[in-house]
């Protein structure tokens, strides 16, 4: 069993940028959140939409080695990026389902995570949850 306690922030930043680009549109709210994430890496503020030459397969190979708790934390953070523009559309949903499958989070657990995120978003923004 993996005992990693720390998540590689550079790999997370690369994954978050790929997630933000999932629907082909990166709005200012997403860029700002990515800049906040990038402050903890060597890329600093210039990484809000940088194209890293790292495949999703390479990134997910790292994330699948994490504990289930860390994987769920990653999914919550990725959903935070996606919800930051107040829209969670089909390409983003497909990205999250693909990511969850690749890193080993089953669909029932992902459904629970999505429900928590959408309900939290709805409460925060007085919107109707998906």
Can you describe what's shown?
With 130 residues, this protein is mostly helical. The chain is built from six helices and no strands. It has helices spanning 9-20, 28-38, 56-63, 68-83, 90-103, 107-125. The longest helix has 19 residues, at 107-125. The radius of gyration is 14 Å and the shape is globular. Mean pLDDT is 83; it is low at 125-130.
Topology:
Elements: H1 9-20, H2 28-38, H3 56-63, H4 68-83, H5 90-103, H6 107-125
Order of secondary-structure elements: HHHHHH
CATH class reads Mainly Alpha
Radius of gyration, taken over Cα atoms and rounded to an integer in Å = 14 Å
Task: Report helical residue fraction.
Answer: 55-70%
Shape: globular
> In the residues, how many domains can be counted?
1
* Average pLDDT level: 83
CATH topology: TerB-like
Q: How many angstroms does the end-to-end distance come to?
A: 35 Å
Structural class by SSE content: mainly alpha
Tally of helical runs: 6
| Largest sheet composition | none
The share of residues in extended strands comes to under 5%
User: How many beta strands in the DSSP annotation?
Assistant: 0
Low-confidence stretches: 125-130
**What's the architecture in CATH terms?**
Orthogonal Bundle
Short structural description:
The protein has helices at 9-20, 28-38, 56-63, 68-83, 90-103, 107-125. By secondary structure, the protein is mainly alpha-helical.
Fill in the keyword field for this structure.
130 residues, mainly alpha, TerB-like, disordered C terminus
């Amino acid at each position: 069993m993996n005992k990693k306690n720390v998540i590689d922030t550079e790999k997370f930043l690369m994954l978050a940028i790929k997630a933000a680009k999932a629907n082909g549109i990166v709005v200012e709210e997403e860029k700002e959140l990515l800049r906040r994430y990038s402050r903890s890496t060597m890329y600093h503020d210039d990484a809000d939409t940088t194209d890293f030459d790292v495949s999703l397969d390479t990134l997910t190979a790292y994330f699948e080695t994490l504990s289930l708790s860390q994987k769920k934390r990653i999914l919550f953070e990725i959903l935070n990026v996606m919800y930051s523009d107040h829209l969670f559309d089909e390409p983003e949903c497909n990205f999250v389902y693909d990511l969850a499958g690749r890193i080993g989070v089953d669909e029932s657990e992902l459904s629970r995570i999505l429900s928590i995120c959408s309900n939290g978003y709805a409460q925060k923004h007085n919107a109707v949850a998906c």
